[in-house]
Inverse folding.
């Protein structure tokens, strides 16, 4: 491996003699066992701890990253971006997942008349390893965006970085291991060739690949994928497009934002981004204006050179081999009909660490290039990718033509739609969405706040159809689920409750409160129990409360909610939904709280919301209601002295008909400490 800027040797790589079968077996046994000792929340907290540790050591990684040709900003995108993914997944994992190792998907489906047989779906982690083959352009981010969701799911990672920049990934993995934060077997690193890795994977395992479409096809065609059931996802070549709306003429904020985006995508990481803009699809009359504006911005702002030199904004390509490949691709595109409208294939003048401006014999430096095409249908512009600081500008006649040209990329990771006209945005976005994994809408409102065309974010899906590989990474908790198996389970409500840790309607309960509703004598109100005492299925049934017309009228007058169903008997009786004047739904929910709440200080610290509220049966004056509250889900917070409890709440009338259903969310002490001595 060589320094991309100087050609100086950095390291040698050789994987001869590595027993990949033992690597995989170690992950399946030691890694699975150690990760399985932690819950989803505990693993998410480990990610935060790791991210904090790595955040304090970024400068060490920057120094190493410079050797790949990356500038400080490029390195921040890669290194800080990767660490940021860990922080994001840690936060989302704790907010959006249960503190367990089973995740439910959807609600219970009743499968028998009496409710004794039911079913639902659950997610549990796959029992193997997550083998991850990463590209050379983002040796840190590319690895950590795969590692983070696998780790939260509880699946050990085998990371295989691309060799040209693998020394950066090696430094990161070394820090991760030396931190002592990760359970043993959480991550393993393969440096060098791993051609036989798929030979030792099976249906228990997952392979995530980022790289060329040809390599992805080869891997996808492997017997163990086709017949052996290895889960496979790929993110590959992509002829990403940016479409300039017809309203975005010279002088508009949109035109300026478009030019800035194109320049950034051409020069960030020296254009070595799977998400970089390769095709700029602009109104035919604006082709020359776009070329001129992009060229002027490059001239004004881009300084090519060794990224360790002061003022350099674009470094070298990752290797001399990469430089040869990009030049060859450009030459092929020119031979096919493309013309260089800006830049040159000649060796550029670069800034050295000594501050000199000169051409150099060593180093993988290349000028940014803009190509134009007389024939916008030319197959080369829509199929040949020069993976460097190279982009093309082609003209369209109308919006339908722009959509058609974008689709000729045969599937892409991302496209930008730059317009301030809502109708144009709608036509273009809906027209190209099915051909792209992400559509970035850019206008004057987002020009300053947007993360950019080429920056995937961990909250949203990264991937794309067709040529882009057909895979899907990131997307928040979705990517955690990619490392889990969805299974349909069937059984009684008691058995579903036992497996999921969530109370299901029809499962056993210990009810306190109203004896007429089956309360157990001496049972303690569940609001008097700390998390240490509270059990799933602990419940409270209130006595009946009669509803009067006077109370309905008073609530209407006090709140201003004088909807006719609560105030006008004739109008209410004419409505097919109401038998006459009925109680407000929110009045019933308020009364329900009064029926189940325990006023004295205790382990319940706060009510922080309702979820899934539905009003089902109207309640006229003269009817009565009762509420039943059941501990449905208990989620202790690992870092706090309290946890969250979701209570299944059902309001019934005097005839047992369901009036309303919802979940009450409370914060409850782990131990009954705060008010233990309350007098």
């Amino acid at each position: 491996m060589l320094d991309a800027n100087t050609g100086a040797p950095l390291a040698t790589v050789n994987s001869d003699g590595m027993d990949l079968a033992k690597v995989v077996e170690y992950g399946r046994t030691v890694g699975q066992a150690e990760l399985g000792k932690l819950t989803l929340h505990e693993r998410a907290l480990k990610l935060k701890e790791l991210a904090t540790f790595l955040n304090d050591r970024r400068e060490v990684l920057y120094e190493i990253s410079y050797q790949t040709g990356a500038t400080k900003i490029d390195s921040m995108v890669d290194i800080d971006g990767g660490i940021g993914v860990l922080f994001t997944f840690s936060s989302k994992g704790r907010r959006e997942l249960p503190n367990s190792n089973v995740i439910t998907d959807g609600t219970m489906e009743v499968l028998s008349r009496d409710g004794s047989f039911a079913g639902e779906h659950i997610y549990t982690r796959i029992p193997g390893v997550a083998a991850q083959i990463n590209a050379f352009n983002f040796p840190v981010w590319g690895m950590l965006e795969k590692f983070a969701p696998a780790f939260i799911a509880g699946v050990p990672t085998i990371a295989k970085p691309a060799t040209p920049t693998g020394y950066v990934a090696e430094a990161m993995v070394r820090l991760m291991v030396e931190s002592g934060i990760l359970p043993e077997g959480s991550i393993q690193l393969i440096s060098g060739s791993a051609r036989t890795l798929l030979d030792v994977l099976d249906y228990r395992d997952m392979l995530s690949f980022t790289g060329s479409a040809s390599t992805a096809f080869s891997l996808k065609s492997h017997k163990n994928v086709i017949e052996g059931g290895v889960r496979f996802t790929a993110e590959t070549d992509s002829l990403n497009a940016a479409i300039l709306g017809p309203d975005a003429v010279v002088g508009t904020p949109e035109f300026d934002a478009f030019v800035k985006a194109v320049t950034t995508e051409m020069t960030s990481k020296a254009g070595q981004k799977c998400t970089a803009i390769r095709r700029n699809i602009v109104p035919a009359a604006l082709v020359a204006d776009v070329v001129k504006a992009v060229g002027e911005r490059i001239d004004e702002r881009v300084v090519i050179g060794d990224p360790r030199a002061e003022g350099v904004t674009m470094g070298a390509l990752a290797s001399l081999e990469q430089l040869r490949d990009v030049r060859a691709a450009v030459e092929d595109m020119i031979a096919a009909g493309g013309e260089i409208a800006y830049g040159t294939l000649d060796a550029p003048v670069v800034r050295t660490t000594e501050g000199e401006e000169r051409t150099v014999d060593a180093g993988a430096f290349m000028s940014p290039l803009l190509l134009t095409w007389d024939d916008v249908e030319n197959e080369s512009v829509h199929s040949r990718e020069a993976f460097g600081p190279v982009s093309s500008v082609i003209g369209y006649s109308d919006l339908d033509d722009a959509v058609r040209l974008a689709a000729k990329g045969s599937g892409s990771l991302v496209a930008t739609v730059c317009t301030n006209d809502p109708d144009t945005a709608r036509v273009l976005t809906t027209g190209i969405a099915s051909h792209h994994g992400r559509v970035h809408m850019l206008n004057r409102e987002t020009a300053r706040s947007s993360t950019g065309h080429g920056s995937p974010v961990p909250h949203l899906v990264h991937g794309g159809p067709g040529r882009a590989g057909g895979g899907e990474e990131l997307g928040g908790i979705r990517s955690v689920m990619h490392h889990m198996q969805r299974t349909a389970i069937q059984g009684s409500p008691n058995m579903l409750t036992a497996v999921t840790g969530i109370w299901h309607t029809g499962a056993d309960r210990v009810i306190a409160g109203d004896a007429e509703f089956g309360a157990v004598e001496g049972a303690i109100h569940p609001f008097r129990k700390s998390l240490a005492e509270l059990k799933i299925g602990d419940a409270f049934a209130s006595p009946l409360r009669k509803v009067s017309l006077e109370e309905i009228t008073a609530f209407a007058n006090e709140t201003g909610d004088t909807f006719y169903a609560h105030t006008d008997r004739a109008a209410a009786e004419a409505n097919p939904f109401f038998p006459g004047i009925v109680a407000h739904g929110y009045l019933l929910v308020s009364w329900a709280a009064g029926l189940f709440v325990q006023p004295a200080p205790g382990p319940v610290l706060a009510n922080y919301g309702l979820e899934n509220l539905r009003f089902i049966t109207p309640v006229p004056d003269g009817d009565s209601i009762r509420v039943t509250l059941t501990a449905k889900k208990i989620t202790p917070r690992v870092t706090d002295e309290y946890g969250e409890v979701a209570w299944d709440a059902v309001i019934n009338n005097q005839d047992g008909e369901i009036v309303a259903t919802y979940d009450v969310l409370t914060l409850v002490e782990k131990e009954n400490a705060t008010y233990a001595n309350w007098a």
Observations:
- The CA atoms of residues 189 and 195 lie 14 Å apart.
